[in-house]
Structures are given as structure tokens and as C-alpha cells.
Fold these 2 entries.
Entry 1:
Amino acid sequence: MTNEQAVALLDLARQAMKRAYVPYSHFPVGAVVVTADGSVFSGANIENASFPLTCCAERTAVYAALNAGHTVIETVAVTAERVDSVTPCGGCRQVLNEFKPADHDMTVILDGPEPTILQLADILPRAFGPRDLD
Ligand code: THU
């Protein structure tokens, strides 16, 4: 993952963020995921008057990829309008973990003055995942 690639993915996440439905928090978030074959899916957070039903941007993007038939996510990039370097919430980290590649970690890109490029294990160490059930 080069810095230029990360910048390009964050640009797409910012485009997706424009579609956030955030009448309660006024905290728009945008995300993109890149699947094993290089397909890109985006998402924004979708809130609900019943607050716990809110779906974060990351999960909206992951579920768009799954709904199109992809089950392996190589990379996720996340941006938020109101803060630098927003990181996926705990629930989204666990959902991302479910779809990481079998033989290497998922790349996580955070927005900011410069992109921060991490691995999922950096933000979800010692994760519990599907292979623990084998
Ligand atoms: N949110 C996300 O979409 N992703 C995150 O990683 C953090 C939180 C959303 C959920 C809610 O719509 C708003 O941000 C405030 O929590």
C-alpha cells in the first residue's frame, strides 16, 4: 500500500461520506473497502431514530461488498468530517476481522494530514475470528 494509493482510497471515502444519514449525531463518516480482486465498495453511516440500529460507515461498506458476492476484504479506508484519524469502532473492528484474508492481515487506512496505514491486528490484537471455531 503506497501513500498515493491510500490518498486515492481516502478520496473515495470522502465522496461516500456525503451520503451519510446522520440527523442525530451530525457526525458523518465514510469508508471504502477493497476486496481480494481489487473491487472497491463504499459506505457511509446510516442512523436511526432507534439509535442502536445505526450502521457505521465501515459496516455499510463491508456489507455492500458481501452483498455483491465478495467475502475477502484486503483494505479498509475510513474518514470522518469532524475528526482527524477516526478509527473503526470496536464492533466494526470485529466485523472487519471476519472478512480479512486467510494468509495475511487487512490493511487499515485512517485519514489525517497524512494517511495512517496500519494493520487490523494493530487495532484488534488477539482477535477472535472464524478460524477459532474450526
Ligand atoms: N461511526 C461510524 O460510522 N464509524 C466509526 O468507526 C465510528 C462511529 C458513526 C456511528 C454514528 O452514526 C456516528 O458515527 C457517531 O457515533
Note: The longest helix spans residues 3-17.
Entry 2:
Amino acid sequence: MNEQTAPSVPEETVPFQQWPKVELHRHLEGSVRFETAWQWARKNPALAHLEQEKLRRLIEFDGVRDFAHFLGRFRVLRQLYTAPDAVRQVAREAVEDAALENIRYLELRFSPDHFASHAGFDMEDVASWILEAARAAAHDHGVEVRFLLTIARNYDFQTASRILSIALRFRDLGIVGLDLAGNELMYPAEPFVELFVRAREEGLGITVHAGEAGTAAHVWEAIDRLGAHRIGHGIRSADDPKLLEELRRRNISLEVCLTSNVQTGVVPSLAEHPLPRLLEARVPVVLCSDDPRVSRITLTDEWYNALQLGLSVEALTHLTMQAVEHTFLPADEKRGLRQRLAAEIASLIPGRPS
Ligand code: ADE
Ligand code: ZN
């Protein structure tokens, strides 16, 4: 480990909230502040009759640890977008929230269909509203933001294909990748193989939700058929030593989201999360939040959860530096980010000149 990639950090240290962070797996769909959801729900007759606590139970984790139930939150959240300003506000606030916990680099993912379908907006319009609002907030708050477009597994081919076209058209506005999300137990990835192969050929980064509620076989499919550079969750890889070896060999990182995995019921408890085993197997891992406002957590909370699992502060800063290598940034931009983060982390270590 050289000094620039992993400064050594004493255990007694500043609160994690202040540490500079890199977030690579965060859904805009799951980043809606409750107050904002409440404000826009009042304007939709389909939701306006709900009492505040009822709405909360429908869009946040409600104690039911079940994968399909968790994903059901997004069917309600979709209904908030009755006006372009709702979409813009959610995008702006998601970036503000990231800034508040000192996320320095954020890859924010979203499905244009999620924000477009209720009101019948055009997906390209929606994408432009989100990109514009998030980029303005990023500028105001000093966060570097890039975007991934999400295709959900239940989408028809035409919708998925249009999402890829939008991703390619808006690359100049910061779109760097394509994501496959949704219910891997109910919907196969196979119909989307050709789109992901094309996206990769065009130079987009590829990440696929796989091996979350599913199995290691879903992860094999993601890396061998869809060309994934990163895997969303991928925790079931821990069951397959050959797969662990392959992820290590190809430098494919797992985007691990601890609380999400407990809330979706794909791990029985935080204490039983396979993260320590994945790290022991030296598989690349990045620590992420998934759906912070659905889960009622921040990335900072996930750092404390990782600490509970036995990771040291030094390991966490190492994961932060490693995350830079797994961003979908070009090499020169990675270099700049790496230098800025290393300098900031060094300045936080007591007794070291900044
Ligand atoms: N979309 C938002 N959160 C998700 C998750 N945990 N798994 C699959 N798709 C998602
Ligand atoms: Zn996710």
C-alpha cells in the first residue's frame, strides 16, 4: 500500500460524517426526502388522501424484510412526479444530501421511465431535467456528480432501448454508465444482453444488480453475458470460490450496500453479512448506500455499520481510495480525484501536515 492510496489512520479519529467519501451505488428513486414526498403527494389525487404516517410506511422501509416488498416502495414513489418541478427538486436535493455528508464524488443512477411514467412525460425531457438540476446543485455544493441510467428488468425491450439511446445522447452532460436493476428472481437479464453489449462497446461503464436476492449464477451471467464492470450487491458471490477468483482476476468490484441487504431480507442480519468474507477473498468491494431515503440511512451510517463488522478506519479509507479506481471516470479524471481525496484524507489525520 503506498502512502497516496491508503494513508495510515489512527483509530481515534474525526467523525465519519466529515470524511471525504465516494458513492458509486445510489438510486435517485430512493433518495427522496420524506418532506418532499409529502409535499408532492398532496398534489396527486391518487396519494393526497393518505395520512402522513401511512405515506411514510409506503415509501420507506417499514420493518418487512422482504425483497419484493422493498421494491414495492418504488411503485408508490413513481406517483410523486406530476410536474417537472417535482423531478427537478428531487434531483437537486439528492445532490444536496450527498454534499451534507461530504460525498466528494457521486455516481447517481436513475431510470427516466420511473420519473416519466405517471404523468406521461417524455423520458428524454425527464433525463434533461434531472441532469440539469443535479449538475447545478453539484456546482453549488462542490460535489462531483456523474450519472448512470437504469434499465429495470421488467421493462420491455423498446423502453430499455430508448434508455440506452438517451444515455448515449447525453454523455456530454455526465452520463458515464448503464445499470440493470429490479427483481432478478422474476425477470431474466437475457432480453437485455444485446443492449448492454452495445453500451459497453460504446464506452459506457456497466453495472448490473445481480447476486442480491438471486445466486452466484446471476453474477456469472452479469459478467460473462452483459459485460459488467461492477456488480450491484453481488453478495452471493461469497458462495462460489471460482466466482470470487474470477472477480478478483478481472478486477470487477461488488457495490456492497449493508443496510439495504438486511432490509430486503437477503441477509438475516448485519452481523451475518458476507462483507468480511468478500474482503478476506480479496474481491474488490465498494461500500455504498443503495436507497438512502427508503432505508433511512446515509453512506456515513454504512461506514459505522462496516466498523461494527470489524473493518478498521484504515480499511474504510482504503475502500474509499479503491472506489476511485472503480468509478466510470476516464483515467485522467480518476487521477485528479485520487490526488484530491488522498490530500484531504491526509489532512484529517492528526499530526500530519495537510
Ligand atoms: N432498485 C432500487 N433498489 C434496488 C435493489 N436493492 N435491488 C434491485 N433494484 C433496486
Ligand atoms: Zn441498487
Note: The pocket of adenine (ligand 1) is lined by residues 27, 30, 181-182, 209, 212, 260, 264, 290-291 (CB under 6 Å).
